[in-house]
Amino acid sequence: MVTWLIEHGIGETRKLLIEGGEVVAASLQWPGELTAGEIHTARLTRKAGGARRGTVTLENGREALVDHLPREATEGLRGQVRITRASIAERGRLKLPQARWISGGADDAAPHEGIATHRFEAGAWEEVWHAASTGSIAFVGGEILCAVTPGMTVIDVDGALSPRELALAAVPAIAKALRWFDLGGNIGIDFPSLEAKADRRAVDDAMAEALSDWPHERTAMNGFGFVQIIARLEGPSLLHRFATSRVGMCARYALRVAERVEGNGPVLLLIVHPALKAKLKPEWLEELGVRTGLEVRIEVNPALALEVPQAQIISDA
Hints:
Layout: E1 2-8, E2 13-19, E3 22-29, E4 39-47, E5 54-58, E6 63-67, E7 78-85, E8 88-90, E9 93-95, E10 98-101, E11 115-116, H1 124-134, E12 136-139, E13 142-148, E14 153-159, H2 163-180, E15 185-190, H3 197-210, E16 217-218, E17 226-231, H4 238-260, E18 267-272, H5 274-277, H6 282-292, E19 295-300, E20 310-314
Parallel strand pairs: 1-11, 6-10, 14-15, 18-19
Antiparallel strand pairs: 1-2, 2-3, 4-5, 4-7, 5-6, 7-10, 8-9, 12-13, 13-14, 15-17, 16-17, 18-20
Helix pairs in contact: 2-3
């Protein structure tokens, strides 16, 4: 049975898709973000004459790019839109959300739902989170390294095996990364160069099998070992979030670590890198106290990595 589990954390909502007890996919949302599939009332604020695209202002005052407008639509028209892609932060700019004008109020998509859980099984979210933090997944004989650029997400295959063996061994890790990191849009995979067409065809076949249930379009491997994938992009991937807001990701993770700590005593001590302290909003710390029933204290330690907070319950001494 395949089930999305939802963990409502402090400052974020986490989702894991579980199949046979294993994590298949993950996604993450922060409060106030739009989600693909949401329906909003909107007013058309900008549109060139005869164009099917324009800009709308949602009921909450936020702007979004919109397509599938009626050709006769004029500025000021009110209606409903379905969000197709959340806003995505990039270095130096913020891409506006994208939406589709709904004719007659019909909708053919919705955010994926699931079962709310108090907390995920130990280690499930941590494994995904730390893999996304490093942008890497190891496999026997090598690893894949993932990086976000303005044009595409790039996955590099590295290892000590022969080129054919390395490429084939990397396929399961690539399939895992695409789902774990919630990747979409333009994705480039840099396999080792394979001179023989039969070897390239073997990798293409392995990719087809590994991604048979993951909607996408894909090119065949070229002579330089490069494969391009295009998949539906609905919002920032975990890699995008780490690339543009690593401190924010780590601050929320520190709160999760603190919320899960066990022990006896009236005080919850959270020790973090100094850069995280400023990101820990007062309302987040207040909620942490409510959830744990403890007094929350924050200490800083420059020797700690951003990604490795420490938490413990202590006596009030």
